[in-house]
Amino acid sequence: MSDLKAIESVIQTYADSMNESDADKVRKAFHPSAKVTGYLPDGLHEMSTEDFASFVAAQSPPKETNDPVTLEIVSLEIAGKTAVAQVRDRYLGMTFLDTLSFLEVDKSWAIYNKLFHVES
């Protein structure tokens, strides 16, 4: 599988994790040392992979409601064993612009950092 396809697969696993409220899929998409950081209307939020997995698992699965997760890859650039993607996703009634940084470790790609911004 090409690096591009492998990264796109990780992005899909990330979207599926939120859509299904699946903590194991969060852990599959994110490196164990990853950080999830950004601003929500109530201020700055910083989470570890485990914090984010717990948060996702605590939500009612959006795929079972009338508000499923939508995702658009805005950009994706690969530089050796690193990559950066910007994705726009709708989750929990908000539209986010996420900047996802990736690392290839042991021939597998994983999200190492997620910065998020609420667009609406």
Could you explain how this protein is built, in words?
There is one protein chain. The chain is of the alpha+beta class and about 120 residues long. It has one domain: Nuclear Transport Factor 2, Chain: A. It is about 30% helix and about 50% strand. It is built from 3 helices and 6 strands, in the order ααββαββββ. The protein has helices at about 5-20, 25-30, 50-55, and strands at about 30-40, 45-50, 70-80, 80-90, 95-105, 110-120. A 6-stranded mixed beta sheet has the order 2-1-6-5-4-3. α1 packs antiparallel against α2 (about 25-30) and α2 runs antiparallel to α3. The termini are far apart. The mean pLDDT is about 95.
What proportion of the residues form beta strands (DSSP E)? over 45%
Helix count, per DSSP?
3
Tell me the helix content.
25-40%
Number of strands: 6
Radius of gyration: 13 Å
Provide key terms for this protein.
3 helices, 120 residues, Nuclear Transport Factor 2, Chain: A, alpha+beta, 28% helix
